[in-house]
Amino acid sequence: MSDPSHMLPPGSGGLPAAPAYPPAPAGWYGPEMEFEEPGTPLSHYLWILKRHRWKILAFVATSVIATLIVSSRVTPVYESTATIDIDRRMPTGILGPEAAQSAINDADQFLATQVKLIQSDSVLRPVVERFKLPVEDVDKETLPSTDVANAPVKLKNLKVTRPPNTYLLLVSYRSPDPRLAAEVANAIANSYVEHTYNIRFRSTMGLSSFMEKQLEELKAKMERSSAALAQFERELNVINPQEKTSILSARLLQLNTEFTNAQADRVRKEAAYNSVRSGSLEAAEASTQGEALKKLTERLSEAEEKFAQAKTHYGANHPGYRQAAAQVAELKSQLNQTVRSILRRAEVEYREAMNREAMLKKAVDEAKAEFDRLNARSFEYQALKGEAEADKKLYEELVRKIKEAGINAGFQNSSIRLADPARPALKPVFPDLKLNLALAFLLSSLLAIGAAILSDAMDKTIRDPEQVARTLNTEVVGSLPMVKSWRRQLPTVKPSGDTKALVPAGHTDRVATSFQEAVRTLRNSILLADFDRGLRSLMVTSACPAEGKTTTATHLALAHATQGHKTLLIDGDLRRPGIHRVFGLNGSSGLAEVVSQGERWQEAVVKLEQMPNLDVLPAGGPARRAAHLVGKTLREILKEAESAYDLIVVDTPPVLGFPESFEMATLVDGVLVVALAGKTERKAVSSALQSLGRLRVNVVGLVLNEVTSATGDGYYYYGYDGKYYKHYYHRDKESDL
Questions:
Q1: What is the DSSP string of 432-446?
Q2: If I label 522, which of 248, 282, 321, 630 is the partner at 20 to 30 A Cα–Cα?
Q3: Judgement on whether residues 575 and 637 belong to the same structural domain of the protein
Q4: What is the CA radius of gyration of the chain?
Q5: How high is the pLDDT of residue 243?
Q6: pLDDT of 91
């Protein structure tokens, strides 16, 4: 990695000035970007499978092995099947509609009925009693003790199926004894064939006997209905009343048409009469004398114009005036006479229309009454005639049916037969080892994968930068890999090559490379993200305790100091200080004494011999009271220290639950929030960021600490797929820092 210290001009303070970079490309994640939550990529599901692969494989292997063990211990079961052929084509000797029964489209219903019939008590009981077969248990609590033996038989291990698009029924029976399975299947098939024959034969003979008894009654009824029809024809003196009814119906239809037209004509003339009587000239002009009335109206208008002109030129005694007035009066008189004439004519036409309507109504009523009288008798005639014909037809059909029933009774059983008897099976059908293992593998795989995806979906912690950007709308400026343990004290540090990176005591340069690169990347990310704000002081905090904020603040300050910049590290966590343990300091004097006793902060600063550019202001003795007063003192320290240091890093208590953190956040140039990958809940970080946002402080971004391949997507896992993490093992773990 190149040394970015060339960005700092000699003698300047603060972070190095940012170089002139080109504009950010489209899609760059900056503080002013608006985020849209994308769908979950396929690579994320692949990462879930990779993360839980050993658990999935263990669960699948356990399921398959358990299935293998159980299947090997199960008693084998054999199945034999007897095939029954149902031929719906009737034999040649069958007479009547039954001969065409195969053409009826009820195959599905018919075969479903036969399947139920095979499983009926009448078919199964003889077989069960013969072979002493086990049956399904009867609910003795709901049946009296005397009825338990007579309860319907439901045979275990019996299966009746129908192959699609066939007239075959397969009767299958399972048993540990293959010979018994074949014998039972054949016995059930034969019992069904025999039972079907008995049912049909008894049904046919019973129906024939019943029809013979009804034949005499039907013959007497036919004779009575024929006699009643003949008597009605004599009384009505009409051979076919229906023809006369048709003539009357046509006449009634014609009269109804004329009556409807007369009604319409009367309504039309009544409206014209009422309009003329109301004094409407428009209605009068629409009458037969309307043309003459219109001319009189026009002449009257002209005369009134002349009269108006005469009034303006002459006096009342002038001959021209009197002549014009007389002409107007004459035309008005003629107009009134014409209107009265039109009114009288409209009244006459209206009354004529009323009389015609009344006459037609009377004629319609008379024709309708005659039609109803004849129609009533016609209905009676048709009823008697239909009854006589129906009785005769039914009698003839019944005679034919009786003859056919006697012939068909001998052919009923030929349509159902045992086509293929069952034979003892050579291989068991249960357990099916291959199928069981395949199902165990498939179902356990689906269940394990589903559980892994569900576990990931229910995980409310922070895992990777993409998730943070999608759910919290916040930028992740750095990811620190998981280091197994850090020594509580780092009393000795040494430069590492040209980069002068801090290497913990007891470790080689090679083993510390991954973590050092992550810290330097974090430092450069902060440098580039806030180059335009002149960031001189940085607060490192977290949402909850034990997130690694102290470790992050310490190494961030060390990384900046190793680049040759003067750096001050302040332990602002007076409730639970930890920086003095990292550097092996006494910790008896520090910020708490500056706040509570008024000491000068310069006197409490510790100069590190191993790191000349890094000074440390420890917290001092724990003091809760001083924690509430640290804000004012820290403001003065920052103001004075900015002239002596390029960067001031302040380690503070967690944001949630400690009010002094908010006060400190308003004093620094930027705030860096630390969260444990895979452990810190999104809700806690979101609450902390919202609280800081309400104070309008500059949140530089979020740091994911202790990132591993198990907590984040492999793309974001620092250290090239984690291959360097195995070198970071220490005996002690500083989980508090």
A1: -HHHHHHHHHHHHHH
A2: 630
A3: yes
A4: 56
A5: 63
A6: 56
Q: Give per-residue pLDDT as tens, 85-123.
A: 988 765 554 555 555 555 456 778 888 889 999 888 889
Structural domain containing residue 66? 48-74+431-457
Residue carrying the six token digits 């590492």: 496
Cα–Cα distance for residue pair 676/385, rounded to 1 Å: 101
Same domain, 625 and 544: yes
Between the CA of residue 71 and those of 60, 77, 177, 346, 433, what are the distances in Å? 16, 12, 18, 109, 7
- Given the structure tokens 């007076």, which residue do they identify? 574
E strands present in 609-725: 614-617, 647-651, 670-676, 699-707
Are 701 and 553 members of one domain?
Answer: yes
Put residue 473 in one of left, alpha, beta given phi > 0 → left and psi -120 to 50 → alpha.
left
Note the pLDDT of residue 494: 39
298-306 contacts: CB < 8 A, separation 24 or more? Answer: 299/331, 300/328, 300/331, 300/332, 300/335, 303/327, 303/328, 303/331, 304/328
- 437, 531: one domain: no
Helices 433-457 + 42-51 axis angle, to 10: 110
Helix, strand and coil content of the chain, in percent to the nearest 5, comes to 55, 10, 35
Cα 664 to Cα 646: distance, rounded to the nearest angstrom: 19
Element (H, E) at 170: strand 168-175
Q: Residue 648: what pLDDT?
A: 92
* C-alpha triplet 333, 334, 339: angle, nearest 5°: 100
Instruction: Find where tokens 């320290």 sit.
Output: 637
- 249-297: per-residue pLDDT in tens? 787 788 888 888 888 888 877 777 776 666 665 655 555 555 666 666 7
Total domains in the chain come to 2
Going by pLDDT thresholds of 50, 70 and 90, the confidence category of residue 320 is confident
Residue 70 half-sphere exposure toward CB, CA atoms < 13 A: 11
Residue 705 — left, alpha, or beta (φ > 0 → left; ψ -120 to 50 → alpha)? beta
Number of other residues whose CB lies within 10 A of the CB of residue 235:
8
Where is 351: in which H helix or E strand? helix 319-408
Threshold 0.70, pTM exceeds: no
The whole-number pLDDT of residue 6 equals 32
